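User: Here's a protein and a ligand (MRU). What would the complex look like?
Assistant: Let me lay out the input and then the predicted complex.
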Amino acid sequence: MNDAISLGLKFNFEKGTLSILNQQRLPHHEIWIEIDSVAEMIQAIQSLKVRGAPLIGVAAAFALAQSALKDTPPDALATEAQALYEARPTAVNLMICMDRMKKVLREDFSKSQLVQTAREIYLEDIRLCDRIAENGAGLIQHGDSVLTHCNTGGLATAGVGTALGILRKAHDQGKKIHVFVDETRPLLQGGRLTTWELHKLNIPFTLITDSMAGHVMAEGRVQKVFVGADRIATNGDFANKIGTYAVAVLAHYHRIPFYVAAPYTTVDPDCASGQDIPIEQRNAEEVVGASSFAPSAVYNPAFDVTPAQLVRGWVLDKAAYSPQEIQAGALQKRI
Ligand code: MRU
């Protein structure tokens, strides 16, 4: 296998050609950008041209593999790996992938071994997504309407996605489902990206603003909520796109089961609770945008933390876990 081809990322393992689908420009423009250096990949990750917790880990691994194919010496590769590791602070997948690449650099370095590890990271993410989809699809019944937040599909992973992968699987199983898509202020990953994916997959959906979630729940139009995660603490608290916590509180109030879906590479064994998760702060322009707001002080945390007590189930690649299993330490072991 010489080519890795995902919805938002392409890499040739021999030539080192690497490109990303510019997610800033979706849904109206499908523009592929060639990436030719680690610095360019860091810029793409930080500007969310490439995004989603699992995908930024894979993309960073490919950028380092590309650099190795250009005969960058191991010391310089180690510096680049650290810069990629630090590109965004909340999604732990990026750090876990870079730790795997750094281990090769430290212990077993050859160009081909580093490229091989990037290949394994990519193939593993596809497999993990498939398992999450299988473990979660059974939670969805024929006729369900499911609300989701942000984008957790093929654009956010190397495979079918996490929460969106589950919805896709249920749809492929022939279940009639409907998806309520939160637009996901301020960068509209739901409105721009999830709708783009659902449209391509032919899955019926309705776009709502984030502030409408409570209303559609009160109307009895939502049976389940499925979201992804950027980092899961071992007590089951998790960080995900800003607005997720509000959705979880609303679901709890309306007694709607709320599920989080992620691969084991999103679980941080060093975070005992959500309080340990660093939250990325982003610039004010993302909130103010091209709008006509009066000049304002702006706060722009990119993620929030949902406490475990609001979660009905954690759908991982190994299994779907109940609150009792999480309390008994299911996430504390290497899963
Ligand atoms: O800032 P983003 O767009 O990278 O944030 C992405 C999310 O919060 C996703 O919900 C999360 O990474 C899960 S993706 C499978």
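Summary: The pocket of MRU is lined by residues 48, 51-54, 91, 150, 152, 156-157, 161-162, 189, 228-230, 240-241, 302 (CB under 6 Å).
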